[in-house]
Structures
1.
Amino acid sequence: MTDFASLIVADRGQGARPIHLVDKDGFADWAKRRPAEDRALLEAHRFDGKTGCAFAILPRGNDFEVVGAVKDVAALSPWCLAKLAASLPEGTYRLAQGDPGKAALGWLLAQHRFDRFRAKPKDDPVGPRVLVTGEAARIARHVQLAEATALVRDLVDTPAGDLGPAEIEQAVRDAGNGAEVRVTSGAHLTRDCPLIAAVGRAAAPGREPRLIELEWGKPDHPRIAIVGKGVCFDTGGLDLKPASGMRLMKKDMGGAAHALALARLVMAARLPVRLHLLIPAVENSVSADAFRPGDVVRSRKGLFVEIDNTDAEGRLILADALDHAAEGKPELIVDFATLTGAARIALGPDLPAMFANDDALAESLRQASEETEDPLWRMPLWDPYDDMLKSDLADLANASGSPMAGSITAAMFLKRFVPDSVRWAHFDTFAWRDSAKPGRPKGGDALGLRAVFRHLERTYPRQ
């Protein structure tokens, strides 16, 4: 992974090229104070402070300064320095006024590359661009957020042939920090987590399903559980997806990537919690042993589930994991999943759908979303739609026969496996970008991660 710690350093008076940030409201006054040759150069380049992500080089003898246009100088966004970090020559830079704050994230991530599958890197960087900041105490946090985001991106971008349940297990084991890791598989999984076992039983040898758990922190601290959907590849099962729908299904473990990244942030920040991470890791494959539409499977909780659609597999594996998480009596459960196309139809690719069974929890997450500029949008747990999951044969079906309210009915299915007494938030996230933006390349991405971590930081502050 990129060495983010080398790309941002504390200000100790070292030499650094200045970056002047301007916005459309302040550009004219700023330009009046510049030398005539600067004004002429900016005019020649039609730089007027109004174009987001634009920048210009101001020569200074054998060196130069930089002027960059941002939306609001007084409130820098996480991504307003990303274009500069990706485009400037190698060297050390500092803002001419103020510190980068949350904009440090974009500076770091703009220099991250995932070149594991290139014989020769596509874009050879010119060299590191180092940012100097006066906020020395915040450097570690900037680096941790960048590492967590890059972890999500790298895991999601890894092809399914190179990232199966065993590789997700290893990624959890690599989290370290003195955490205890347990894995349930084979006959024990069939007995204890029958929904997880059913979804993954058609996978090839070496890609068998498993429930991966990590526990960390002092037992007397508040217990929280983080659950992530780990479908390493989703063919749709016997309800086979079309080719167009299967092309991106390597990203169906995006929930697991988010959950692992969040767990690593919690451990790195040493939040005073007893952390329980649960990742049901499976491959939804097709074989003679695949589970079938119409099958009835008994869940860990004891509820019998009729399989209406084998392509609604994510909620099945999450159901057993959520029930197991609830057995530990946590005061909070958070789950991430690339669960429904319906959420994308409703909210598009950038807005994870958030469902919560507690209004205060939902409001805290909304505030954290605004603070971090990591958007979320609350959707309703609408009880009347629970009727859409009725089964004539079993306690409930795993999908609705209606084409409407797909993300809500999926959340209502999960709600059956979470006790009303436990605060719970469910995030139906895309974990992907269809097009590139500064600091955010096309491919896997963390959506909702920073917002949830900010909520946890505020709820469980370090003493």
2.
Amino acid sequence: MIGSRTTSPVLSAGIAGIGFWTRGLPSWAAARAYLADGPPSNGMPPADAPAKPSAQLLAPNERRRAPDTVAVALEVALAACTAARRDPATLSSVFASTHGDLAITDYMCETLASEPRTISPTRFHNSVHNAAAGYWTIGAGAMAPATAISAYDASFAQGLLEALAQLATGTDAVLLVGYDGAATGPLGQISRSEGLLGGALLLVADPQPGMPRLRASIQEARVNAPIDTEGALSRLAAGNAMLPMLPLFEALGLLRPHAAITAGSGKILGMEIAYD
């Protein structure tokens, strides 16, 4: 990458499947069309755009209990598996979220401070950071390892590094999911996040013809080479905490050969992408 210096080994993978969801763009196909054509002339999402993901992987009772963050994580995870024609039950997974579910965290704090005995067992159950990973393993029947990662604005980059490291050490395929929802209450003043956003990549150690091929390494960030967060998807979902992942999805959608995302502590994750 121009304007940066590699500080780690290069890790590689093929991208077998992609999932995406945000309000108005409920699929990767919709996101790619948005990147190619731009927003509608009225600036509004399609009238039939779903207000929230469906999380069809879950049984109806579990679906009703699952918060929006879990729903969007499972929606994009299943979409990536379907695109790759891979059985979700067989896959190791990495779930990356900046905050988990801040709306539930705000509810928990407010209730504990005012009426602690009225706290909802279901919402308590959904408050843990690995809730989405847990729902995924239940819904998919997956017995493979599932990892939950949080690293503030570097959460997706660190999740991607974890997935690539698993591939480098012998795992044949890893599902990576990044997601975040809206913050509410006092937490919204210090941990800002708006809307609902999720993206997933099904990464494989042995790329097949036609798959994008990714090579990534940690690099020193340079002031004169800022990360591009001005693309169409980044503008659309600018308020969401998972915004840092979007330069990679924009590069994939537009078939660009380079992307960079923040990796924390003055580092970036620089990527080269080849397409057949």
